[in-house]
Specification:
Blueprint: H1 3-26, E1 29-31, H2 33-43, H3 45-66, E2 71-81, H4 84-93, H5 104-108, E3 113-127, H6 129-197, H7 202-236, E4 243-245, H8 257-261, H9 268-288, E5 294-305, E6 314-324, H10 330-397, H11 403-437, H12 441-450
Parallel strand pairs: 1-4
Antiparallel strand pairs: 2-3, 3-5, 5-6
Helix pairs in contact: 2-6, 3-6, 6-7, 6-9, 6-11, 9-10, 10-11
C-alpha cells in the first residue's frame, strides 16, 4: 500500500474515533432532580408493570358490578327427530299441528320433524345479596392495590435517591482521585528535584513513580465507577443510556423522632394491608350471604320454524320470577370458617407489621445519628490529615523527613478525603431511609422539588 493510502486510512480511523466519542458523549442524558423524579414515576418498568395490577383490580370491580345488569342471550338450535313426543311438541311449537297428527298411526310412528328453534333469554337479578358483598370485596382489593402502588412509587424514589447519591459519590471520588494524582505528580517532582540536587535518593524517585502509577489506577477505577453509577441511575429511569443529574443540593431536613413515629399511618403498604383485612372481613359476609334467598326475573321469547333458521312459524314467550334459597349446603359453613381464619391471620399480620414499622423507624433514626457523628469525625479527620500533609511536605523539602513519610501521609490524606465523601453520602442516604420507613419520602420529595 502506498504512503498516501496509509495516510488516508489513518485519517479515517481518527475521524471514526472522534465521531464515536461524540456519539458516546451525546448519548448521556442530563436531568435535574425534578425531571428525574418525573421520569422515574412515568417510565420505571416496575411501576408501569404494577400499574396494570391496579387496572386489573379496577376491571374486577366492574365485573362485580356487572352482575347487577341484565344478561341477554340469543340461541339458535337445529334438531331433527322422529321421537313421538318431540315430533308432536315440535309441530305444536311450529303451529303446524293438524287433525291428521292425532291419528293413532301418526302418533305412534310419526315422520321426522326438522325444527329451527330461536330463543332469546333475559335474566335480571332482583335481590342477590352476594353481588352486593362481592362488589364491596373487589373495591377493598382495588383500594389495597392502589395503596401498594403508592408504596411502590415511594420505593422507586428511594432507589432513585440512592442511585443519585451513588453518582454524586462517584463524582466526588473522581475528584479525590484527581487530587491524589496531582499530589503524586507533585511528590514525583520534589523527589526528582532533590535527586538532581544531590540531596535525595533515586529510590525515592522510584517510589514516587510507583505512587503515581497507583494514583492513575485509582483514576481509571473512579471513572469506571462513575459510568456504572450513571447506567444504574438510567436503569431506574427506564433508560438504556447513562444518566447524570445536575449538581443540586437535595437536602432532607432531619426532624425529631416523634415526627416520624407519628407518621406511621402514612405508610401506604400498611394502609394496603388494612384494606386487605377489610376485604377479608367482607369476604366472610359474602360467604354468609350464600345462606340468604335470591330473587331473579327470567324472560324467554321463542320462535320455531321447520324451514329456515330465525324463522317464525310459531312464537311464544315465558316470563317467570324465580326464588332460590339454599337450605342445606355443607360447604358454605366450611367456606365461612375458612374466610374467618384468613381474616384473623391478616389481623395478626397487620399488628405485627405495625410493630415492625415502629422498630424500623427507630432503627433508621439511630442510624442517622450514627452517620451524623461519623460525618463530624470525618470532617475533623480530613482537616488533621491536610495539616499533617502540609507539615510533612515542609519537613521533606527541608530534608527533615524521609520520602516514605510523605507517601504514608499522602495515603492517609487520600483515605481521609474518600471517607469524608462516603460519610456525607451515607448520612444523606440514612436520612432518606428514615423518611422512607415513616412513609414520608414521596411527600417530602414533592415538597422539596416544588420549592425549587
Amino acid at each position: 500500500m502506498r504512503t498516501k493510502d496509509w495516510f488516508v486510512v489513518v485519517i479515517v480511523i481518527l475521524l471514526l474515533n472522534v465521531l464515536s466519542a461524540k456519539v458516546s458523549h451525546s448519548s448521556e442524558l442530563v436531568l435535574t432532580f425534578n425531571e428525574a423524579v418525573d421520569v422515574a414515576l412515568k417510565n420505571n418498568p416496575e411501576l408501569k408493570a404494577f400499574k396494570w395490577v391496579v387496572e386489573a383490580g379496577s376491571a374486577e370491580v366492574d365485573i362485580s358490578k356487572a352482575y347487577y345488569y341484565p344478561k341477554l342471550t340469543v340461541e339458535e338450535r337445529l334438531s331433527s327427530t322422529n321421537s313421538p313426543t318431540y315430533t308432536f311438541m315440535g309441530k305444536l311449537n311450529q303451529e303446524r299441528l293438524s287433525e291428521k297428527d292425532f291419528l293413532i298411526e301418526r302418533l305412534n310412528s310419526p315422520e321426522h320433524v326438522t325444527d329451527f328453534q330461536t330463543t332469546v333469554t333475559l335474566l335480571q337479578p332482583l335481590f342477590v345479596p352476594r353481588i352486593k358483598y362481592g362488589i364491596e370485596v373487589s373495591k377493598e382489593m382495588l383500594s389495597s392495590a392502589q395503596k401498594q402502588y403508592e408504596r411502590r412509587k415511594e420505593e422507586i424514589l428511594f432507589r432513585l435517591y440512592n442511585a443519585y447519591l451513588r453518582v454524586q459519590t462517584a463524582k466526588q471520588f473522581l475528584e479525590v482521585a484527581e487530587k491524589g494524582l496531582e499530589d503524586a505528580k507533585e511528590h514525583l517532582r520534589l523527589a526528582e528535584l532533590r535527586y538532581r540536587a544531590g540531596t535525595g535518593l533515586y529510590s525515592d524517585v522510584l517510589r514516587a513513580e510507583v505512587s503515581l502509577k497507583d494514583a492513575e489506577k485509582r483514576m481509571v477505577a473512579a471513572e469506571s465507577a462513575l459510568y456504572v453509577a450513571k447506567r444504574a441511575l438510567g436503569l431506574i429511569l427506564g433508560k438504556t443510556v447513562p444518566v447524570d443529574i445536575k449538581d443540586e443540593d437535595i437536602v432532607l431536613p432531619l426532624k425529631d423522632l416523634s415526627f416520624y413515629e407519628s407518621s406511621l399511618s402514612r405508610r401506604a403498604d400498611l394502609s394496603s394491608l388494612q384494606k386487605r383485612y377489610s376485604a377479608l372481613r367482607k369476604a366472610v359476609s359474602l360467604e354468609r350471604s350464600m345462606l340468604l334467598p335470591e330473587v331473579g326475573l327470567t324472560a324467554v321469547y321463542q320462535m320455531n320454524d321447520h324451514r329456515s333458521p330465525f324463522g317464525a312459524e310459531g312464537e311464544s314467550y315465558t316470563v317467570a320470577v324465580v326464588l332460590r334459597w339454599s337450605f342445606f349446603d355443607p360447604t358454605i359453613r366450611a367456606r365461612i370458617k375458612k374466610k374467618e381464619a384468613e381474616a384473623n391471620q391478616m389481623k395478626e399480620l397487620l399488628a405485627g407489621f405495625q410493630q415492625e414499622i415502629s422498630f424500623r423507624i427507630n432503627e433508621a433514626y439511630q442510624k442517622v445519628r450514627e452517620k451524623q457523628k461519623n460525618l463530624e469525625l470525618s470532617k475533623v479527620a480530613l482537616k488533621e490529615a491536610e495539616e499533617a500533609m502540609r507539615l510533612v511536605r515542609i519537613r521533606y523539602e527541608n530534608s527533615l523527613s524521609p520520602f516514605v513519610d510523605l507517601l504514608d501521609t499522602q495515603m492517609m490524606l487520600q483515605n481521609a478525603r474518600a471517607k469524608l465523601v462516603e460519610a456525607e453520602n451515607n448520612y444523606s442516604a440514612a436520612v432518606a431511609e428514615l423518611y422512607y420507613q415513616s412513609g414520608q419520602l414521596l411527600l417530602e420529595f414533592l415538597r422539596a422539588t416544588a420549592n425549587k
